[in-house]
C-alpha cells in the first residue's frame, strides 16, 4: 500500500509552486460567472497541522511557506511589496490561521479550491468540486475535514483511483447557457514508477474528451528518466491537441548535507493568458526566500498561447 503522507511535505517549496499556480489560474477562471467543475485527482487530507510531529520532523514548511511568510513580513516593514500571485497565495494560507499568531494550519489543494468556490462573489454560481484519494488514513481525514464545511452536494469525495476517475468526469455538464468549464489538478505522489505514464495517459484521454479543460499536472524534478519524460510527453500531447501550455519549474537548490526533493514543476494545459506574467513576477521572490544552494533557479516556458 502507499507509504507517502503529504503531512510531511505540506507547505514545502513544491506546494508553494503548485498552490500559487492553482490560485492564480482559478482567480482568472472565476472572474467569469459561468460555473466550473473542479477536480482534484490526488486530494490528500485537505488540511495539515504545521505544528504536527510530521511537519516538525521534516521541517519542510519551515523552509517553504513559513520562509515566504517571513520574507513578506520583512518587506511589509519597509521593503517592496510581494508580487500579486505570491501575496494572494500567502493571503490564502493566512485566511486559515488566526491573525497575528504563528501559522498552525496549511490548506491543501481541496481546501484552497473550496475557499475560492465559497467566496461571496462566487457563492451563487454553483461550482462543483470532485475529490479522489486512495490512502485509508488520508481519505478518512479528508472526509472529516470536509464534513466541517457542511458543503452538501457541492463537494464529492470518492475513494477511487484519480487517474481513471478524471477522464470519466469529462466533458463536464453544460451549465444554463450551454457553457462547459472544468479545471483539474493532477498531483500524484509518484511513489509508483508507473504514475508518470498513467498521468500522461489520463491527460491524453482528458484532451480527447474535453480539449478546452484546464489541466494542471505537478511533477517532481528528479534523476529518473520517467520524471524527465513526463513534461516532454505533456508538451507533445498539448501540441498535438493544438492547445496552449505553460511549464513552470522551481529549483530551490541543494544545501550541503540536505537530502530530499529540491525541484519540481507544474505543467498547465490551456492556462489563462495572465498566468505567464503572474508567475514570472512571483517566482523570483519565491526563489529569493527559499533558495538553499547549488542548482537554484526558476523557469516559465510557454507554447501555443495566442
Ligand atoms: N493535492 C494535495 C495538495 O496539494 O494538498 C496533495 C496530494 S499528495 C501529493 C498525493 C496523494 O495522492 C496522497 O495523499 C496519496 O495517498 C494519493 N494517491 C496516491 N495514488 C493515488 C491514486 N491512484 N488515486 C488517488 N489518490 C492517490
From TrEMBL:
Signal sequence segment: none
Catalytic activity, reaction form: adenosine(2030) in 23S rRNA + S-adenosyl-L-methionine = N(6)-methyladenosine(2030) in 23S rRNA + S-adenosyl-L-homocysteine + H(+)
Keywords on record: Methyltransferase, RNA-binding, rRNA processing, S-adenosyl-L-methionine, Transferase
Single GO term (MF): RNA binding
Enzyme class, first EC level, given as a word: transferase
Known role: Specifically methylates the adenine in position 2030 of 23S rRNA.
Name of the protein in its database record: Ribosomal RNA large subunit methyltransferase J
Protein species of origin: Ottowia cancrivicina
